[in-house]
Amino acid sequence: MRLTGTVRLCVLLLSSLLSGCAAPLLFVGGAATGAVIVDDRRNTSTLAYDKTIEFNASRSLDGDAELRAETHLSVTSFNAIVLLSGEAPTTALRYRAETKVRDVPRVRRVYNEITVGFPSSMLTRSSDTLITTLVKGALSGNHYVDANHVKVVTESGVVFLMGLVTHTEAEQSAEATRTVSGVVKVVRLFEFID
User: Fold this and answer.
1) For the packed helices 44-62 and 5-18, what is the interaxial angle rounded to 10 degrees?
2) Are residues 53 and 88 in the same domain?
3) Is residue 107 located within the same domain as residue 137?
4) Considering its fold, how many domains does the chain have in total?
5) What CA–CA distance (Å, rounded) separates 177 from 131?
6) How far separated are the first and last CA of the chain, in Å rounded?
7) Using CA atoms, how far apart are residues 37 and 138, in angstroms rounded to an integer?
8) In what order do the strands lie in the sheet with 151-155?
9) Which range marks the domain in which residue 85 is found?
10) Residue 178 sits in a domain of what CATH number?
11) What is the DSSP string of the chain?
């Protein structure tokens, strides 16, 4: 099946929304103009690479029967830097997952934040989703940070912040995140642009 440009754009936007990231604002013009990304510091190629990295890394992890059966893993790519989070019952499985993700084309760096332990419960995952939403709200209310510049990932109350930011934006993001109820720890994985 061949996808039209409009369908591809809808798929990209939908995948951004479903992945939990702050979706870039898109303006769609006529058929000749395509889409313009308004509020993301990454260029369109990098956005596409990040989605491809996440897809390929997830597919690689799912292709390993033991990892699929024994772990709960999440892959987040921002500017080709990958956050690997979740839980694995052994150190060996933790490192096997990291090795698989490192082998994905275009990955520049992997932060392996997988904890050794049993997969988290649905209650914990639901709580993490709520915390992520509250953190995004706190960032939106901060005058020094554009919430669209910060990717938020939460695992068992630990909030990981990613993005291309200034040092001031990083500090303000971390401070705003610390005020959110349920946040156990804030981990900054930013790249600095100043």
Assistant:
1) 60
2) yes
3) no
4) 3
5) 9
6) 45
7) 23
8) 151-155, 158-162, 185-188
9) 45-116
10) 3.30.1340.30
11) -PPPHHHHHHHHHHHHHHTTS-PPPEEE-STTT-EEE-S-SS-HHHHHHHHHHHHHHHHHHHTSHHHHHH-EEEEEEETTEEEEEEEESSHHHHHHHHHHHHTSTT--EEEEEEEESSPPPHHHHHHHHHHHHHHHHHHHT-TT--GGG-EEEEETTEEEEESEE-HHHHHHHHHHHHTSTT--EEEE--EE--
Mean pLDDT, the chain, as a whole number? 87
Residues 54 and 26 in one domain: no
| Mean pLDDT within 87-95 | 98
In this predicted structure, the answer to whether residue 76 has a pLDDT above a threshold of 60 is yes
Amino acid at 43: N
Distances (CA, A) of 132 to 22, 89, 111, 182: 11, 25, 19, 10
The model's pLDDT over 8-37, given as tens digits with 9 standing for 90+, comes to 444 444 444 444 444 444 433 333 333 435
User: Rounded to an integer, what distance in angstroms lies between the CA atom of residue 146 and that of residue 40?
Assistant: 10
Least confident residue range of 19-33, 60-74, 89-103 = 19-33
Q: Are residues 143 and 84 in the same domain?
A: no
Residue showing tokens 């990291």: 98
Q: What percent of the chain has pLDDT over 90?
A: 79
